[in-house]
C-alpha cells in the first residue's frame, strides 16, 4: 500500500501537534492513526476520530480518499477530534401506555401518553406529576416557560384541544389555565415560540393555529353552534376557553409537525409531502419545500440553520429553509428501516442529531458521517415515537413499549474545549 | 387484262344473265315458270337489268345513227323473234299490271315494274320503228353489249351513291328516271316480323335487302351458287378453265440469232466522262471534308445485339429471386486417376457397391487407379452424369427461405419501469396487532386517520393509521364478514356485517361536530321512521351496553349477510345475502329513512359482491361469472360484463366509474374498461392462489389484489381521459408479509384515501400497512 503525506491538526488545544507532514501508509485506519498520534504525544489516548475534509474516516484512508475523490498526490489534512462516546443508558421510566411525546428541559421531563395524560418527571426519573384532563390521547406536549417555581406547559390531544397548564413545582399543583379550542381534528403537534408568549399548533384538520401562550383570567368568546347541548359543554370545560390568534391554512393534508425557526417564523411539516415556512407577522406562507413522501417530524437547529425532516420513506433529510427556489435536499441520512417518527438536533452541537423510528431504534447521527449513524441505541422493544435532548447531556426517547429511556451522552467536548 | 379476268368473268356472268333476260324478252319458247324465274332475277339484279335496259336505250340512240351506216341485215327469223318479244313484253306488262293490282303493298315494286315496263315499251316502240329495216343490226347490237364490261350503277333510283339514311324520314326512297318519287314499302318490317320471317321463311337465308330500292330480294339457286363459288375464290363461271395451257411467246432456248442485231453502243465500253467528273467532285468533297463518308459499322463487338436490353425492368425484377445453381463439389482424391490406395475399393467394398441401389451408393463411381493419365479412358457415364445434374437442377426446386428474425426483446411489451411509476407502496411499515381471529374485512375512514377491521374473533377494532394504535374495540358477538366505513366525511359511521345482522356503528372518533352530527342522524330518524309492513328486514334500535359501545342500529336480515357496501353519498347501504334459490339476495337500505328494499325480482345467480357507482346511479352486482350493471333510476340492466373466470371473489370500481377490477378464486384479476368492451381489457394472472380482495386507489393510479398465497400485488393502472388510449397496466410490486394460516393468506386489501399506502388484512390476525 502506498504511502500518503498527511498533516494532522485539531482545534482542541489540548492535543495540538506540530504542523509537520507525515508519511503514513494508505491502508491505515482510525486505530492506526490514533497509534500514530499517540507516538507524537508520548502518552496513550484512544478516543480520537479523524475527519478528512469534513467527513469521518470510517474505512482505510486510501479508500476513503478514493470515494471522496481526494487527490493522493497532495498532503492530506487530517483533523482529529475526540471521539463522541456512546450514549449511556441512565433511567427507564415506565408509563401506563404508549408515550407519544416528550419534552425535557434542564430540570423536568414532560411526557405525553396514550393514556390521555401528560406526566412530569424529574431528570433523575422520579414521577412528579400526572396531568390529567384530556378526554383523548395526548399527542404532543411542550414546556412553555419557567418562571421560578411556576411552569407553563402545553398538552395537545386527539380531543381537538390544546390545554395550557400552570404547574407549581413546589406545591406540585397543576391547574388548567386555558383550553384552546378551534381545531376540528386531532391536534398532533404544538410548539412554543422562543419568547414563550405564543405557540403554534398543527392539526389533522390541515390547519396551523397561532395562540397566545400568556395565561389570562378571562375567557375568549366562542360562538357556539346553537344546537349544541349546553350542559355537555359545561362538563367538558377545563380552564378558560381560548381562541386562536391566527389560522394558517395551506396544507392539503394533516399537519404532522410544527416548530418555530425564530420568533417570526413557523415551519410546518405535513402529510401532503411539503414543509412550509410561514411568516407570523403577516400570516403568509414564505417557502414550500416539497418532498416525495409524508413528513412525520421536523427539527431545526439554529447552530447550523438546517432543517432535518423524518419521513415515511425511512430517510432523514436535511434542508435549508432559506432556499427560495423550491426544495433542495442537502443531505440524506439513511439507515432506518421504518418510518422516521422523531428527529431532533442536538441543542449544543451543530453536527449531531438523534432520530427515532418505527424500527424500534434510536440513532445518533453526525452530519459529517452521513453514510452511517454514529450509534444505534437499541433500547426500545417497540416503536419509537419521540426523542429529545437536553442541554445538560441527557438524551430521551419514548415509544410504544411504554418506556421512556434517558441516556447520558458525552456533552460536546468540542464546545467544551473551545 | 389477266388481273381483271375474274372481274370480267363476273361481268360475263352477269351478262349471261342479261343475255338470258334478253332472250326472255325475245321470248324464245320459255315456259311460264321460267318467265317467273326471270322476273325474279330481274328483281334481284335490278341494276344490271337497268343497266342493260339503259344500254339498250343507248344502243337505241346509237342504233338510230349507226344502223344507217351499218347496213347489216338480219334474218327474218329474228324479226319473228322481235315480234314475239314485243308480244311477250306486252304480256309481261299485263301480268305485272295484274301483279300490281294484286299486290297493293308492293307499290314500289309495281312502280319499278311499271318503270321497266315503260322502258321496255319505249324500247319496243323504237324497235318497232326500226323493225322494218334494221332488225338484223339490232340483234347484233344486243350481242355486242353482251360483252360490255361497263360497271354502271343501278339507275332506277337516281339519288346516286348516297347514304340511304338521308331518306329515312321520307315516305319515298328516291326518284326514278322520270323524277317521280319511288315510295318505300308501306309497312316496314319490325323486329318481330324479321324474327318470324327468320323462323318461318325457308328462303330467309338467301334473302337480301336492297337499300336502294328498299325491297327484299330472294336469290335464285344459280345466284347462290355463284356467291358460293366466289366465296370459295373460284371463278364465277362454271365453265371457265383457269388451267389452260400457256402459250409461250419467247422460247427459253438461246437461238443463234439475237432478237435484235443492233451493235453495242460505244459508251458501253468507254468510261463515262460525266461520271468521272461526278466522282472526282465527290472525291474532292470528301477530301475537303464537305461530305462525310458513311461511317462503317464497327463489327469488332460482333453484330449480335443484346436481346434483353430493352426488357421491361419489372420482368427483370421478377427474376431477382434467382438463385444460382449449387456448384458441384470439386473432384477429390477419389476422382483422381491415381488415388491414394486407401480410396480404392477393397473387394468387400466393391461387392457392397455393386449390391447397393444406385441411389444408396456413397459414391456414384468406383475409384480406379491408372498408372498414367494417358491410360485414362473416356468417362463412360459422362452423358448420364450431365443428365442427372440437369435433372437435379430442374427437378429440385430451390427457393430462398425468408427467415423471420424476431428479437425476443421485441415481444415483451414496452412498459415503463416500475421505478418511474412512483409512488406506490413498497415496504411494510406498520403492523396492527390485536385481533385473535382472521380478519376478513378492513376499511379506512374517508379522512385516512382511522382504520376499521372486522375479525372472526367477534370484534371490530378501530386503529389509528399513523401509529397502529388500537383506539377502540367493539365486541359484536359474531364473526365479522364485512365492514365498511361511511364515505360521507360529514358523518362517522361504520356498517358491519355480522352473521345475519348489519350493525350501524358510530366509532365516536375524530371531529366532535361530526360525531354529534352522526348521533343526531342516527337518533333523529326515530321520529322520521315510518312503521311499514313486514319488510324483508327489521330495523332495531339498540339500547344499553350495545349503545354504549357505539352500536346504534341493527338491521336484522333473514339470512347471513356477506357484504355491506355504502353508496358514495353515504345514505344508501347495500347488503348481500348470497343464496342460490332466492331472489332476495341484495337489499338496499336507506339510512336516513330507515327503509329497505329489494331491487331485484329475479335470481340471476349467486351474488358475490355489490358496489355502487361512485358518481352515477349505477349499481354493480357480481355473480359467480359475470358482473351486471344496473341503472337504478331507470331500473334496468345496462351492461353485463363477462369475467372469463370461474368464480368472482371481489370487485372494485374505479373512482371515475369507468373501470372495474374483479378478482376471482381461480387466481385471476380482470380489468374491465366499461367504454371498451364487456370482456376484460386485461387479465392478470400473477397470483398463485385465489384472489380474495381487490381495490383501487381513490386518487393515485394504483390498484392492488390480495391473494391466498400471502402476497399483495400492487399494479399501476393509469387511466387516460381520451377514449383512444387504453389504460396502462403495469405490475409494480409484490408485497409479502402475511403468514399463511390454514391455507388462507391475505383476505382483504384497501388503499389509504390520500396516500399511496395499502392496508391488507390476513388470516394471521394482523393488518399490515405498506408504504
TrEMBL record, chain A:
Top-rank lineage group of the source organism: Eukaryota
Pfam families: NLE, WD40
An annotated Gene Ontology molecular function: ribonucleoprotein complex binding
Main localization, broad class: nucleus
UniProt GO BP: maturation of 5.8S rRNA from tricistronic rRNA transcript (SSU-rRNA, 5.8S rRNA, LSU-rRNA); maturation of LSU-rRNA from tricistronic rRNA transcript (SSU-rRNA, 5.8S rRNA, LSU-rRNA)
CC terms in the record's Gene Ontology section: nucleoplasm; PeBoW complex; preribosome, large subunit precursor
Region spans: Disordered: 217-238
Coiled coil ranges: none
Location in or out of the cell: Nucleus, Nucleolus; Nucleus, Nucleoplasm
Record flagged with keyword Repeat: yes
Extent of the WD repeats: 131-175, 180-212, 248-288, 298-320, 333-369
Domain NLE, residue spans: 4-65
InterPro entries cross-referenced by the UniProt entry: NLE, WD40/YVTN_repeat-like_dom_sf, WD40_PAC1, WD40_repeat_CS, WD40_repeat_dom_sf, WD40_rpt, WDR12/Ytm1
Keywords: Nucleus, Repeat, Ribosome biogenesis, rRNA processing, WD repeat
SUPFAM superfamilies reported for this sequence: WD40 repeat-like (SSF50978)
Family note: Belongs to the WD repeat WDR12/YTM1 family.
SUBUNIT field: Component of the PeBoW complex, composed of BOP1, PES1 and WDR12. Within the PeBoW complex BOP1 interacts directly with PES1 and WDR12. The PeBoW complex also associates with the 66S pre-ribosome.
HAMAP family xrefs: WDR12
Protein name per its UniProtKB record: Ribosome biogenesis protein WDR12
Taxonomy of the source species: Eukaryota, Metazoa, Chordata, Craniata, Vertebrata
Amino acid at each position: 500500500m502506498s504511502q500518503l503525506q498527511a498533516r494532522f491538526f485539531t482545534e482542541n488545544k489540548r492535543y495540538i501537534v506540530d504542523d509537520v507532514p507525515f508519511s503514513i501508509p494508505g491502508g491505515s485506519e482510525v486505530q492506526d492513526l490514533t497509534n500514530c498520534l499517540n507516538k507524537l504525544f508520548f502518552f496513550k489516548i484512544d478516543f480520537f476520530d479523524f475527519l478528512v475534509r469534513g467527513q469521518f474516516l470510517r474505512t482505510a484512508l486510501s479508500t476513503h480518499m478514493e470515494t471522496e475523490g481526494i487527490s493522493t498526490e497532495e498532503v492530506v489534512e487530517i483533523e482529529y477530534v475526540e471521539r463522541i462516546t456512546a450514549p449511556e443508558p441512565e433511567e427507564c421510566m415506565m408509563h401506563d401506555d404508549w408515550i407519544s411525546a416528550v419534552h425535557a428541559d434542564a430540570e423536568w421531563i414532560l411526557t405525553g401518553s396514550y393514556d390521555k395524560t401528560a406526566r412530569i418527571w424529574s431528570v433523575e426519573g422520579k414521577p412528579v406529576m400526572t396531568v390529567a384532563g384530556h378526554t383523548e390521547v395526548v399527542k404532543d406536549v411542550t414546556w412553555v416557560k419557567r418562571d421560578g417555581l411556576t411552569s407553563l406547559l402545553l398538552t395537545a390531544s386527539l380531543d381537538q384541544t390544546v390545554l395550557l397548564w400552570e404547574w407549581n413545582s413546589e406545591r406540585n399543583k397543576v391547574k388548567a389555565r386555558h383550553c384552546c379550542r378551534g381545531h376540528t381534528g386531532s391536534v398532533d403537534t404544538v410548539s412554543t415560540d422562543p419568547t414563550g408568549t405564543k405557540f403554534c399548533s398543527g392539526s389533522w384538520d390541515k390547519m396551523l393555529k397561532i395562540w397566545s401562550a400568556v395565561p389570562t383570567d378571562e375567557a375568549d368568546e366562542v360562538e357556539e353552534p346553537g344546537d349544541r347541548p349546553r350542559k355537555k359543554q359545561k362538563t367538558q370545560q377545563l380552564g378558560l376557553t381560548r381562541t386562536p390568534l391566527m389560522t394558517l391554512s395551506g396544507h392539503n393534508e394533516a399537519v404532522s409537525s410544527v416548530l418555530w425557526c425564530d420568533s417570526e417564523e413557523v415551519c410546518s411539516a405535513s402529510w401532503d409531502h411539503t414543509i412550509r415556512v410561514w411568516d407570523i407577522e403577516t400570516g403568509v406562507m414564505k417557502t414550500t419545500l416539497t418532498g416525495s413522501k409524508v413528513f412525520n417530524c421536523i427539527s431545526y437547529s439554529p447552530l447550523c440553520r438546517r432543517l432535518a425532516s423524518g419521513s415515511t420513506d425511512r430517510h432523514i433529510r436535511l434542508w435549508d429553509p432559506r432556499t427560495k427556489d423550491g426544495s433542495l435536499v442537502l443531505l440524506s441520512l439513511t439507515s432506518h428501516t421504518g418510518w422516521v417518527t422523531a428527529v431532533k438536533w442536538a441543542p449544543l452541537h451543530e453536527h449531531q442529531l438523534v432520530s427515532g423510528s418505527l424500527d424500534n431504534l434510536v440513532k445518533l447521527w453526525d452530519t459529517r458521517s452521513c453514510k452511517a449513524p454514529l450509534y444505534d441505541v437499541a433500547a426500545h422493544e417497540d416503536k419509537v415515537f419521540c426523542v429529545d435532548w437536553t442541554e445538560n447531556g441527557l438524551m430521551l426517547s419514548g415509544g410504544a413499549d411504554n418506556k421512556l429511556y434517558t441516556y447520558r451522552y458525552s456533552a460536546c467536548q468540542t464546545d467544551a474545549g473551545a | 387484262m389477266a388481273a381483271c379476268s375474274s372481274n370480267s368473268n363476273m361481268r360475263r356472268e352477269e351478262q349471261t344473265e342479261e343475255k338470258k333476260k334478253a332472250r326472255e324478252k325475245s321470248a324464245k319458247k320459255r315456259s311460264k315458270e321460267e318467265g317467273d324465274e326471270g322476273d325474279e332475277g330481274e328483281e334481284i339484279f335490278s341494276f344490271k337489268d337497268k343497266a342493260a335496259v339503259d344500254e339498250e336505250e343507248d344502243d337505241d340512240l346509237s342504233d338510230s345513227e349507226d344502223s344507217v351506216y351499218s347496213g347489216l341485215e338480219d334474218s327474218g327469223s329474228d324479226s319473228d323473234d322481235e315480234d314475239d318479244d314485243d308480244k311477250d313484253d306486252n304480256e309481261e306488262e299485263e301480268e305485272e299490271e295484274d301483279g300490281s293490282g294484286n299486290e297493293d303493298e308492293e307499290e314500289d315494286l309495281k312502280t319499278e315494274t311499271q318503270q321497266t315496263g315503260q322502258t321496255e315499251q319505249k324500247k319496243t316502240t323504237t324497235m318497232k320503228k326500226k323493225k322494218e329495216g334494221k332488225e338484223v343490226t339490232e340483234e347484233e347490237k344486243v350481242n355486242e353489249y353482251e360483252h360490255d364490261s361497263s360497271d354502271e350503277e343501278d339507275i332506277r333510283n337516281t339519288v346516286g351513291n348516297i347514304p340511304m339514311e338521308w331518306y329515312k324520314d321520307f315516305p319515298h326512297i328516291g326518284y326514278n328516271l322520270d323524277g317521280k318519287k319511288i315510295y318505300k314499302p308501306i309497312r316496314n318490317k319490325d323486329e318481330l316480323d324479321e324474327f318470324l320471317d327468320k323462323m318461318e321463311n325457308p328462303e330467309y337465308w338467301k334473302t337480301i335487302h336492297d337499300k336502294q330500292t328498299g325491297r327484299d330480294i330472294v336469290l335464285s339457286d344459280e345466284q347462290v351458287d355463284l356467291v358460293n363459288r366466289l366465296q370459295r375464290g373460284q371463278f364465277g363461271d362454271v365453265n371457265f378453265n383457269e388451267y389452260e395451257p400457256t402459250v409461250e411467246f419467247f422460247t427459253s432456248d438461246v437461238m443463234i440469232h439475237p432478237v435484235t442485231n443492233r451493235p453495242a453502243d460505244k459508251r458501253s465500253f468507254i468510261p463515262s466522262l460525266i461520271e468521272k467528273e461526278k466522282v472526282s467532285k465527290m472525291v474532292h468533297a470528301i477530301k475537303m471534308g464537305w461530305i462525310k463518308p458513311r461511317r462503317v459499322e464497327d463489327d469488332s463487338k460482333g453484330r449480335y445485339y443484346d436481346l434483353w436490353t430493352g426488357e421491361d425492368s419489372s420482368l427483370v425484377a421478377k427474376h431477382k429471386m434467382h438463385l444460382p445453381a449449387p456448384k458441384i463439389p470439386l473432384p477429390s482424391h477419389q476422382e483422381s486417376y491415381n488415388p491414394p490406395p486407401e480410396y480404392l475399393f477393397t473387394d468387400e467394398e466393391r461387392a457392397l457397391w455393386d449390391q447397393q441401389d444406385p441411389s444408396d451408393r456413397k459414391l456414384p463411381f468406383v475409384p480406379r487407379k491408372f498408372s498414367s493419365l494417358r491410360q485414362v479412358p473416356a468417362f463412360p457415364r459422362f452423358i448420364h452424369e450431365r443428365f442427372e445434374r440437369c435433372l437435379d437442377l430442374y427437378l429440385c426446386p430451390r427457393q430462398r427461405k425468408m427467415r423471420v428474425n424476431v428479437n425476443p426483446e421485441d415481444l415483451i411489451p414496452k412498459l415503463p419501469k416500475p421505478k418511474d411509476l412512483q409512488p406506490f407502496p413498497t415496504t411494510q411499515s406498520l403492523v396492527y396487532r390485536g385481533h385473535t381471529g382472521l380478519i376478513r374485512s378492513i376499511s379506512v375512514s374517508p379522512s385516512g386517520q382511522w382504520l376499521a377491521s372486522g375479525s372472526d374473533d367477534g370484534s371490530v377494532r378501530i386503529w389509528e393509521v399513523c401509529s397502529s394504535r388500537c383506539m377502540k374495540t367493539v365486541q359484536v358477538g359474531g364473526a365479522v364478514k364485512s365492514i365498511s366505513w361511511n364515505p360521507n366525511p360529514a358523518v362517522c359511521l361504520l356498517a358491519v356485517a355480522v352473521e345475519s345482522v348489519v350493525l350501524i356503528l358510530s366509532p365516536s372518533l375524530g371531529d366532535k361536530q361530526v360525531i354529534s352530527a352522526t348521533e343526531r342522524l342516527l337518533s333523529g330518524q326515530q321520529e322520521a321512521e315510518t312503521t311499514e309492513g313486514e319488510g324483508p328486514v327489521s330495523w332495531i334500535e339498540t339500547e344499553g351496553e350495545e349503545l354504549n359501545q357505539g352500536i346504534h342500529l341493527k338491521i336484522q336480515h333473514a339470512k347471513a349477510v356477506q357484504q355491506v357496501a355504502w353508496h358514495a353519498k353515504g345514505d344508501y347501504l347495500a347488503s348481500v345475502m348470497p343464496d342460490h334459490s332466492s331472489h332476495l339476495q341484495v337489499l338496499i337500505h336507506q339510512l336516513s329513512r330507515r327503509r329497505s328494499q329489494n331491487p331485484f325480482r329475479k335470481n340471476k345467480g349467486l351474488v358475490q359482491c355489490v358496489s355502487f357507482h361512485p358518481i352515477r346511479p349505477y349499481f354493480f352486482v357480481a355473480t359467480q361469472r359475470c358482473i351486471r350493471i344496473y341503472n337504478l333510476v331507470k331500473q334496468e340492466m345496462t351492461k353485463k360484463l363477462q369475467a372469463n373466470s370461474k368464480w368472482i371473489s371481489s370487485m372494485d370500481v374505479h373512482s371515475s366509474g369507468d373501470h372495474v377490477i374483479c378478482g376471482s378464486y381461480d387466481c385471476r384479476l380482470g380489468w374491465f374498461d366499461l367504454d371498451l368492451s364487456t370482456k376484460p381489457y386485461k387479465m392478470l394472472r400473477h397470483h398463485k392462489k385465489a384472489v380474495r380482495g381487490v381495490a383501487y386507489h381513490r386518487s393515485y393510479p394504483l390498484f392492488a389484489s390480495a391473494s391466498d398465497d400471502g402476497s399483495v400485488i400492487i399494479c399501476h393502472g393509469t387511466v387516460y381521459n381520451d377514449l383512444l388510449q387504453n389504460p396502462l397496466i403495469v405490475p409494480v410490486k409484490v408485497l409479502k408479509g402475511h403468514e399463511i394460516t390454514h391455507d388462507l393468506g391475505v383476505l382483504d386489501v384497501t388503499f389509504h384515501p390520500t396516500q399511496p399506502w395499502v392496508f391488507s388484512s390476513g388470516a394471521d390476525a394482523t393488518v399490515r400497512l405498506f408504504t
